[in-house]
Design goal:
198 residues; alpha/beta; eight-stranded mixed beta sheet
């Protein structure tokens, strides 16, 4: 079973925040796949599906960004999911708006949500799909920036990114990170992608 995690803060107050791009992508994904999130007895909302015979779970933690790892740990323990079958979708201020970067493992990059997941799983060996939110803020205003809303033009750009990301996530679900990397490379070679992998 694969687990796709979106990082974000729960509640309407944060719905359109830059920090919530992981949640926003998963909401876009479930709409396209005709799925629906539901509450669980744990600290998260989930939906389950199957793609080419491969079951998957989509997870939105209810723990707020800084404690994302608590929900992810509960989920992988409940469903008996291996860490290398986890893909985390997360915002990245080091990438221009709508740019994508994929990685097979690594550190937290200064992101508290990733830090929490690494801490609670005691592992860095989960995949990441980072979506750029830009860095158009003055020194000292990071918290204000990530908790501010995208504008309409931002969401137009992100829709293209989300559609590309669906193809990447579908590949991860069906056959893991290497298949996702192949899809990434194919899209890039077709000049449909201007993003990065490490």
């Amino acid at each position: 079973m694969r687990l796709i995690v979106g990082i974000g803060n729960p509640g309407s107050r944060y719905k359109n925040n830059r920090h919530n791009v992981g949640f926003q992508f998963l909401d876009f994904f479930v709409q396209k796949k005709i799925l629906q999130f539901k509450a669980s007895k744990f600290q998260f909302h989930i939906t389950e599906g199957e793609l080419l015979g491969q079951p998957f779970v989509l997870l939105k933690p209810d723990t707020y960004v800084n404690n994302s790892g608590l929900a992810v740990l509960d989920c992988i323990n409940h469903f008996k999911i291996e860490v290398n079958d986890v893909l985390v979708v997360v915002d990245d201020i080091n990438l221009a708006l709508s740019k994508i970067r994929i990685r097979k493992s690594g550190g937290d990059g200064g992101h508290n949500g990733l830090y929490s997941i690494i801490y609670h799983l005691e592992s860095r060996d989960f995949s990441r799909l980072r979506i750029g939110i830009g860095d158009d803020f003055e020194t000292g205003n990071l918290a204000y920036y990530v908790l501010s809303d995208f504008n309409k033009d931002d969401f137009v750009k992100l829709e293209t990114t989300f559609n590309q990301s669906i193809q990447l996530v579908d590949s991860f679900i069906s056959d893991g990170y290497n298949k996702m990397l192949n899809t990434f490379s194919r899209l890039k070679n077709l000049n449909k992608l201007n993003n990065e992998t490490e």
